[in-house]
Amino acid sequence: MSSSGSSGGGESGYSSAGPQYTDCKLDIITHIASPNPAVIAILKEDDLLDVVLQAARGPVVLITKAKQIAGGILPDAIAELIQCMSEGNEYKARVIEKKGGNVQVRIKNA
Does 2 score more than 80 pLDDT? Predict the structure, then answer.
């Protein structure tokens, strides 16, 4: 969301207030957007979810071990995440906090 500095063409590095990465080593904390209430109800802290790119340009969704969609994600670094996933990098999301239907996850390399 920051438009300061140069308009680089996707070289390595991310220099806004968001997460830092090098060579797609991402560490992102975000909330599940558009959560599936039935799936969210059974999630617990420390559950591990697959991060899946549904199409070349998104959306990015979180999938349980039972192959159910928990919801999507829209972190500040969504462009970097999609770019890295398009290059073949895989990520997992760990549930770090759950308060009712509000679920926070941490996304890291698989």
Answer: no
